[in-house]
Structures are given as C-alpha cells and as structure tokens.
Amino acid sequence: MEFFTEYGEASQYQIQQVIGKGSYGVVAAAVDTHTGERVAIKKINGVFGHVSDATRILREIKLLRLLRHPNIVEIKHIMLPPTRREFRDIYVVFELMESDLDQVIKANGDLTPQHHQFFLYQLLRALKYMHAANIFHRDLKPKNILANSDCKLKICDFGLARASCNDAPSAIFWTDYVATRWYRAPELCGSFFSKYTPAIDIWSIGCIFAEVLTRTPLFPGRNVVHQLDLITDLLGTPSSETLSRIRNEKAKSYLIGMQRKYPKPFSLKFHNADPQALRLLERLLAFDPKDRPTAEEALADPYFGGLAKLKHEPWSHPISKLEFEFERRKLTKDDVRDLIYREILEYHPQMLHEYIKGGEQTSFLYPSGVDRFRQQFAHLEENYSRGEASTPLRRRHASLPRERVCISKGTNNQDYSNENRRMASSVIRTAISPPMSQEEGQKHASVYQNGTNIQNFCSACYLKNASTSASTCVVKGNEGLEKNGISEDLEEKVVYELSDRLAMMHS
Questions:
Q1: Which residues are catalytic?
Q2: Among 254, 320, 395, 400, whose Cα sits 20 to 30 Å from the Cα of 121?
Q3: For residues 250 and 271, is the Cβ–Cβ distance under 8 A?
Q4: What positions does the domain Protein kinase occupy (predicted)?
Q5: Is 493 exposed, middle or buried (0-12, 13-18, 19+ CB in 10 A)?
Q6: Has 43 been labeled as part of a binding site?
Q7: How many CB atoms within 10 Å of residue 446?
Q8: Is the distance from CB of 101 to CB of 261 less than 8 angstroms?
C-alpha cells in the first residue's frame, strides 16, 4: 500500500556512532537499511528555545530542499515528529561526507595546482547556481565546505543565508551579523552599504582560495578594525571613488584618515602559485564589490581552461519570494513550529497530501522514529563524552501505521467490531510482501546486524507496540472505549485472530 513507505523511517536508519557534537546538538553516522548507503543524522536539540535559532533552522531546511546541486549538501530525509504541536528536537538525515575543507587544508601539505583549481571550480559552480536562485550564503568559510577523499566539495550551513528580493525591506534581510570575520567582505566589516550584492560571497570564496594556496588564513583579524587593516595592507587603501559611495560615516572617516597604503603584488604573498590563479584571485578580492566578477564570469576565466563546461554548471531559476514570506513578519515559537512541521512533511508525501487535503485529520497514525532515535543518541553520546567506543543499541521492530478509527457516542459495538476486523485484514494484506531474490536476501541480512528476519516478528506488535499504542486520536464526543461499551476482550480477540492468520500464512 502507498502509506507503507511512510512508517518505514522508524526502522530505516541504523545509527552507528557519534561523529560530531556542538552547541546545536549531535551528528551521528548511520546506515540506510533500505539502500545500504551511509548517512549523517543531525539531531538538533531544543529547536524552539529561541525564535531566532528556530527561524535559522527553518531557513536552512527550506533552502536545502529548494537548492539541489552537486556541490551543495543534500537533505535526504527529516524524521517525522511524534506530535505536531509539542516536538522540541528534530532529526535531519544528510548525505555523509568524510571531512571539511578546513581539515583538508590542515592535514594536506601536498595539494597540487590541480587540487587548487578543482576546489575553486566547484565552489564557483555552486555559487553560480545559488546566485541565479537569488540566494546569498553569507557565511562561507572552510568549515562550512564539506569534503570527500575524491576531492568533491559541498557547501553546507545555510542558516545565515538570505533570499534577495527587490522589494524586501533592507532592515530585515541585510543585518551585519554575517560571515565569520576572517572571510567577511570589507563592505560588511564597515557597514558600507544598506544593501549588498552576491559579491559578498565572491569575496569569501577568494579568502578561502587564498587559504588553500598558503594553508593559513589570509586576513585573521582580531576585530573589525584589525580586519580592515589587514585587508588594506595587501590591497592598499580604497580609491576616492569607492570611499565616496560608503554611507557609514564612521567607516568612511576611518578609511579616509588611514595612512596611504599601496597594493602589494600577489606573487610576493603567494609564492610558487599559478600566475593565472593569482590573476583570478586578485579579481575575487577586489576591495570594491562592483569590481569583483560574478561567479559566472569567474568560471569563464582562462584559469579554468579545459575544465569549465556549461553543461556541467547547473542553472537555477530565482526562488519565489513567497517561500520566504515568513522573513517579513514577526514570528512566535508556535508560528515557527508550524512552519518547520510543514517543511518536514515535504519528506512524507502521504502525510503532506492528507495535511493539505484535510488539515489536522489524517487517515492513518504514522509511528514516529524519533523516540527510538532519542534513545540511541543518548546511548552513543554518553560513550562519546567519555571518549569511548560504543556498540549501537539494537533496533527494535516498528509497527505498521494503524488506520485512524474515530468513535462517536452513536456508534454501536457491532460497527466497531466490523471496523477492527477490516483493519486486521488490511494489516495482513500489507504484511504480505513479494519474496526476495537470493541477492536481495543476502543484502538484507548483511544490513540488519541484529539478525532479525521478518518472519520472526511477533504478529501482535503490528497492532500493539510502544510506538502506536502511545498515539492518540482526539475526537469531540469520544470519552474512551469503555464508555462506549467496547471492552479490552474485543481488542485482544482481534489481535489473536490476526496472530492465527499470520501463523497460518508462515507455516
């Protein structure tokens, strides 16, 4: 049945080990038991502690759903929360990457000019796609670029990203708290303008590329003033034309009063670097944003001769401003919770269809895998904090979704009994799956490390287990089964009838 894929997340991912921990929560490596693919599951704790943090998470999961590019990290799935109104944590399934560019730079002193070229090409290719969609990342740095041993890079962490809309109020979209200082464009350091361009991302990419070449940060400023000093030490003081366009009077006065500095040749700063690479780097690090190339223009630079091909550079249409309508208004915690829940439903098509069609009411109760994940994360985190290796908790079986049965006072026992029998019959039909081939069976057995076979499932757990029995259907007029004359004996009878029928099929 179509809904069968919806409940499967409760058993689809087998968590293996914690691979990272921070203020946001925990990241664990896991295996997708359906495909055998390794994934990373990010548990985000206390999402709604602060509206600003929750909005940042909403923005990131929305953007990563809308932006699909080989050099942008992909969200594969988001776990369905147990309840719509009260959930606090979310579990996001990403593709698993081996490292990040910061670690690659630190650990590899033998990167070749071909590595340098391929890294920059991938980053500009991602920027071309993002900027065509009118999205500015605003926090590009080596730690926000994931890397694999095959040299593939993927940009991540879109929490500070923004969609650029021509009629958007600048006060909402263009705060100065963007980008880690070392990779922050000079116009952001000095609040030069009230609205910015994609050139802020181009500057960050230039700083990252310079770090790839030298293995050290280019402008490691201690504060904003020191940052501007380091920038002007290399690029020289800005021209009078650039200074005239700066709206922030304090920043303008500081730069005008600065001792005259002259630009230094990049060849003296970056020894043994490819001359074509340095010419492009100078363009990327132009002090005035209007002098920096777009990502598309940078990809056409002679430095990428023989590598750049338009067919390998996906293009995106601008993202509708309606997707970011929430940025224009003041949100409460409940507002953000509803918006995040709606985003999560994008990864649960059947529930999304029912949500759109009927709002709160759904035809099936879908067990959530969050409770099981919470236990596994807690188990692994305890050992991770002590620096010890740990064995993941054994996976428990998940139940099928139960069809929602809403009983009113006017419903008699016979109707309820018939409904239960029909439900049991439906579950049995769903439980029958086509036989697996020998190859599929071997793969299935290798993935499920606990050695459990589908035929060993307790048939009663299809209707009664911790996941589904904890679910409730709240309907006006329903005061409980006993008050409607429905006994536990009848429910047990249905379960045992189901057990007998399943036993006959497997005998």
A1: 139
A2: 320
A3: no
A4: 13-304
A5: middle
A6: yes
A7: 9
A8: no
Take residue 33 and report the two structure tokens written for it: 């038991």
Tens of pLDDT along the chain (507 residues)?
Answer: 232 233 346 578 888 888 888 767 788 899 998 899 999 999 888 899 899 899 999 999 999 999 999 999 999 999 988 888 888 889 999 999 999 999 999 998 889 999 999 999 999 999 999 999 999 999 999 999 999 999 999 999 998 898 886 544 333 344 444 558 899 999 888 767 667 889 999 999 999 999 999 999 999 999 888 999 999 999 999 998 888 888 888 888 888 999 999 999 999 999 889 999 999 999 999 999 999 999 999 999 999 988 867 666 777 778 887 888 888 888 999 999 999 999 999 999 888 888 888 755 444 444 556 666 666 667 676 666 666 665 665 555 444 444 444 444 444 555 545 544 444 444 343 333 344 444 444 443 343 333 333 233 232 222 222 332 222 233 333 333 343 333 444 444 444 444 444 445 444
Coil vs helix vs strand at 90: strand
Query: For the chain, which domains are there?
Result: 1-96+332-396 (3.30.200.20), 99-312 (1.10.510.10), 400-507 (no CATH)
CA dihedral of 416, 417, 423, 429, whole degrees rounded to 10: -160
